[in-house]
């Protein structure tokens, strides 16, 4: 099983419908897991590092880690635990 940042990627399942997200170790968790994931959750895989528009919370414009990803792209969502413990990053 991968970790959330293996191979310099971070994987987030995001739902704009309910304003929540969870981290995963697999972009294809929906097909690998025995635990059903609601369709409203969409997987997003981010490469690290990557560039974004510089702002107060990211002065150099480089997204380096999972904390940067959450503060830049998911700041208005709440994090919930992955519904399948086998895919919960450590």
Distance between the termini: 11 Å
| Helix count, DSSP H or I runs of 4 or more residues | 2
Strand elements, count: 6
Strand/helix succession: EEHEEEHE
Mean pLDDT: 92
| Largest beta-sheet characterization | 4 strands, mixed
In what range is the share of β-strand residues?
25-35%
Shape: globular
Structural class: alpha+beta
- Spatial order of strands in the largest sheet: 3-1-2-6
Q: Please compute the radius of gyration using only Cα atoms.
A: 13 Å
List unreliable stretches of 5+ residues.
Answer: none
Helix coverage percent: 10-25%
In short:
This protein has helices at residues 29-32, 66-73, and strands at residues 9-15, 20-24, 42-47, 50-51, 62-63, 78-79. The protein is of the alpha+beta class.
What does this protein structure show overall?
With 90 residues, the protein is α+β, with helices and mostly antiparallel strands. It contains two helices and six strands. The strands form two sheets. A four-stranded mixed β-sheet has the order 3-1-2-6, with no helix packed on it. The protein is globular. The mean pLDDT is 92.
Question: Features of this protein?
Answer:
90 residues; alpha+beta; four-stranded mixed beta sheet; two-stranded antiparallel sheet; 2 helices; 27% strand; globular
Helices and strands, with pairings:
Elements: E1 9-15, E2 20-24, H1 29-32, E3 42-47, E4 50-51, E5 62-63, H2 66-73, E6 78-79
